Each structure stands twice: as structure tokens, then as C-alpha cells.
Amino acid sequence: MSSWKGTPLDSSRETLMRHLGVLKGSGSLECEGKSLGRADYEFDGYLVRPGEIVASGEVHMDAVALAEAFGRANLVLRTEDGRLLSIRFSGKRLPAESAVAHADVREGLPDEKEWRRSGQDAQ
Asked: What's the CA gap between 121 and 4, in Å, rounded?
């Protein structure tokens, strides 16, 4: 028998994240208009509430360039298809000589209807 005496969840307020698909490709990582180097990326997108999409995943680039970019503010990934994704690296430290880092996308993501499901690329 449970001793928990909390109130049940109000299902009308419950928020469930829904996976929208994968956004992947190549581009250039920039900071305040200066190119820091070529990058490949793969982000999973999620609808967290109507009209709010978040994404996170990996950025792959030359280890020296990644070390220069890591920890900077105002990073933008200019994708080959013309998107400007505002990203932030989510780790506190980058392992020496690492060529990959986890990042969160803050702005520039496709609208919900533009994502493809089942692991296909977003348009």
C-alpha cells in the first residue's frame, strides 16, 4: 500500500514531448559573423507544447575548431540549405582532441509540419 498522498495529475495540463524527426546535414559554425569551421550535425526535434519546438544532438567538426568554438556564446550553425540555427554546447568541458560535442538548438528550427518522422531528414 502506497503512503503517497499527493494529488493526481490533471491530464488537461499534462505535457508530453513528441518526437518530430531528425534534422541532419552540413554547414558552417559561426560566431558573430566569423566562420569557425565546417560542421556536420544531427539533431532530434521535439514538440514540447503547441508552437514550441526544441532540438538537441551532436555537432561534428575538426577538433581544433571545435575547441575554439566550445563555450562561446552567440554561435550560429549556417546550414547548407540556408537555415540559421542558434546553438549552445551543453557540456561543461570538452575532452581533449574531441571532434564531437552535444548541442542544444535555441532558434531557427523548422515548423512542426516541416519535420519528417521515421528518421528521415527534415526538409
From this structure: 44
